[in-house]
Amino acid sequence: MPAQQQAVIPQQRARRPQGATAGGPPPFLARLRPRAAAATVWYLRLQALLNIVAVLSLPFREEVHEHNVGEYFTPYLATAGLVSAALALFLAMVMRRRKRAAWIFNMLLAGPLLALYVLALTQDAYRRHAFNWISALLTGLFVAALLLGRKEFRAVGDRSNPRLALIVGACGILVSGGIGTLLVSATNQVPGATLTDKVAYTLLRGVSVGPLADRIDAVHAPRWVDITVNVLIAASFLLVLYACFRAPRGRELLGEQDEQRLRALLARHGERDSLGYFALRRDKAAIWSPSGKAAITYRVVGGVTLASGDPIGDPEAWPGAIEEWLEEARRHAWTPAVMGASEEAGTIYARHGLDALELGDEAIVDVADFSLEGRAMRVVRQAHNRVRRAGYTVHIRRHGDIPEADMAALIEKADRWRDGGSERGFSMALGRLGDPADDSCVMLECRDGEGEPRALLSFVPWGEHGLSLDLMRRDRDCENGLMEFMVIELLLRARELGVERVSLNFAMFRAVFERGSRLGAGPVLRLWRSVLTFFSRWWQIESLYRANAKYRPVWEPRFLLFEKSADIPRIGIASARAEGFLTVPSLPSLFGRRHGAAARTERVVEHVRSESSGGKVPGPG
């Protein structure tokens, strides 16, 4: 390109934000759109608050009801009922997340209502009341804000939402309407009411606790029944709204082609991140950079797109993968979050608008620096010698070298020794012990003096010369210190496998325990340490730190990355669900999708075996 053209192009790009952009809206309109979208959210929040106040305040409720009958009308969604309050609050939430379906829903309700108000104002009976003009003006401003900010609402929903909403709505009406009708029948103070009267009264009470249902002269129920019916139908309505606007669940299986491409990236760049191999979990999906040189693996849990570890591949291509992942999150109204990112990846994520919170530290042992000699290692050395004198031995093998019968026996033992009914782990666990595609993993099997298996450890590859802890299982009746004995045996014999570094457990909030116990620690840090120590009675928080500190590791910080601080509680719940600490019922079809990939696994195995002859499979040694 000529030098003059090269000089002109930057100048043109610099001038575009100050004038009309090519093919885009004028700058003032581009600035006005997000403000108009935000205005619709605040309008809905205000209406939710006013409806709740009207339900709780009798004078205000009667005033609203008076303006909803006769020659008066109120602004959009101002009905003094819990259903309207729930609707306004829910719509405010989904509009804040820029759901396209929520925008359409509001337009279908507010648009015809505004047209009706305009038509009513042509009549003398309605035109002479100033409040009607205010109601029409507020509704008109809301519709205008919707139209002005329509392009801000781009988030799509799940294709199955309409069908699910119909099912939930039918079931909700049957259940809440049935319970309400029974309550009305049992407490009706007027004799001679028909079933039709009772059902009509129940449905009208679901809309409002005001005089709307008083037109049914044959029914008069106590006030507590009216409120109960209104709450039941409001709850059912909320469920319908959730079904309408829920975020797409996302792809739950790692595709065969994606897995092969990820393994190729790990073969070239796997030494960068000790958590890289866990990207091969098959309950994750992969999104790629435009160049295909980097990828982010994630899983959608409760509307949170949860990535783990660092992006896989060339760091120069990480920004492209991050941009694609964030764009997909915006398109589906998912909340983006990353668990366990390193400082290097966290810095790049921060350039794309994510904030960071230090979760804890990963314990990494350099094999060359590890030794049992010295006074500092006396306790560890004594524990190792005690277990060895008790007759325990450790057998170290790669998964690919373990016969099928032995692997089946180890899997059966691991399932029996598991603490809980299901596998846990997402960011730092593979969750598929014994899969043939993972034959480069390393298994440590510990047997007692009689040759009985008592514990096992499984490690995944970390590049060509590293291992990362995946699984720890032991018999509860075995000798104390057995896990420490196995880790030390691995560190002492690691060079036989060509292993130079080993990543052990992750210590949550390690810095708090370390710094909080030092002389001169501030009151806030000491208080935070006391709180964590208290909760360590039920969860292994401090014990994990102490258990790993005895190996004198290098501590590598890991971070939680998020977009907004208000999303942290939601991200925490999603993380707990992904890691297996919180469980919710799932559809059998989804369960089958996650665990019914045997045929595809065999194809991956064949591909990995064919590639291994060329030395492309990641793994130490």
UniProtKB/TrEMBL annotation:
InterPro entries: LPG_synthase_C, PG_lysyltransferase, tRNA-synt_2_TM
Residues in Phosphatidylglycerol lysyltransferase C-terminal domain copies: 263-561
Membrane topology listed for this record: Multi-pass membrane protein
Source organism, top-level taxon: Bacteria
Location(s) in or outside the cell: Cell membrane
Main location: membrane
PANTHER family from the UniProt entry: PHOSPHATIDYLGLYCEROL LYSYLTRANSFERASE
Entry keyword 4Fe-4S: no
Keyword set, alphabetical order: Cell membrane, Membrane, Transmembrane, Transmembrane helix
Renumbered residue ranges of the record's region Disordered: 1-26
Transmembrane parts of this sequence: 41-60, 72-94, 101-119, 131-149, 164-186, 227-245
Name of the featured protein: Phosphatidylglycerol lysyltransferase domain-containing protein
